[in-house]
């Protein structure tokens, strides 16, 4: 049996700096103190589920959960304007609401346990709890984080999240979730939520976030569904020789630049119209796609019909796929590029499973094309390929992929090993702004930590205005990002984020 082990790399970036110590334990006066950390944690507390939590028992990780054991914990959070509440009261009210929310979602307060047969379960014992941190950044304001037309200041943003670089297998010894309230010098706040990726996917992540915020307003609770039977009983397990847990499957220290690209609702409507107009005028739809490693033909082979409308998001993804491929100047014309995205299986299975299912119910699908094909074809061609891949991922494809995984269990190979891949995570449909009002008004911006980021990793967020615009968090190698930002084809569509900062507030 694999014993519980801590994550293979954990760095607490928000800890306050201390002076160098002399051998006798006294602070050395001849060595200057390190500069104070701009974000420092002033208190930590454990928060337990309140009330009589649902009796969920041991929850065995599913075929969608287990591949995520090698991924970092999910790190997402929201900036809010000054709440107008005393800081001490703010922290205590958030912790109290968190306790009530955990009473509805007790699995987040549990731990991972490896059983004698090497299966892994989520166990909620009497000591179930999460960590809640209260941090301050008196020298920082919103303007230091939300900088229009500039890279994301990752050195600052990363310190907004606890459990940095914690791998999900580490949930054997560490909490499955952690939370941090950071109060900036201008009174604005950031609420960060970190969750084990083998326990939640994006849909479940935001379901909990919404519930926590709703507890502060007295909003109705949407009860989660903890059942694990939608694929039937799975006997497959992942084994880790020597008891050492997995590491992430990409180089977490590779240099990256990160940008938030804003696409207005009008720009996205135009992309969709262009993609579908090209499709109607007779572009070749008979392309091949890769779904879970299998070559599949276009939508006609799956009974979907070639007139299936290309969505706004597929059109936007095709635009980015083409633009990033152009920016990767080192790629040869015959290089195969891959665009990978996560597909929510909840509504695709037959019978469908509850949209409130709490756990991972996602699979990754990939679409491929050569550099030359993307360069010589228009937006509609690339968008039609993405559309066909997604359309083909129906109940049968989902169950085949699950069966293939059971036959050869493995951790999900997240990353970009050949330098020609892109991976789109998150979704503009997630309720990041809608539903996450803690009583202080609408959030100002979504940001993430450095978890699961590599060259070609992107995440899509809904625009803050709620008008159909989309923000895309783009992580690229520095030279690729420089080329992308010089691409007039990207700049002609992208609309610069309408964010101005006045007295530290983004409006």
TrEMBL record:
Among SUPFAM superfamilies, the record links this protein to: CoA-dependent acyltransferases (SSF52777)
**Coiled-coil boundaries:** none
- InterPro entries the UniProt entry points to: CAT-like_dom_sf, Sec_Metabolite_Acyltrans
Q: One short Pfam family name for this protein?
A: Transferase
GO-annotated molecular function: acyltransferase activity, transferring groups other than amino-acyl groups
Q: Does the keyword Ligase apply?
A: no
Entry keyword set: Transferase
**Which superkingdom is the protein from?**
Eukaryota
Transmembrane segments in this chain: where?
A: none
Identify this protein by name.
Acetyltransferase
Q: What is the lineage of its organism?
A: Eukaryota, Viridiplantae, Streptophyta, Embryophyta, Tracheophyta
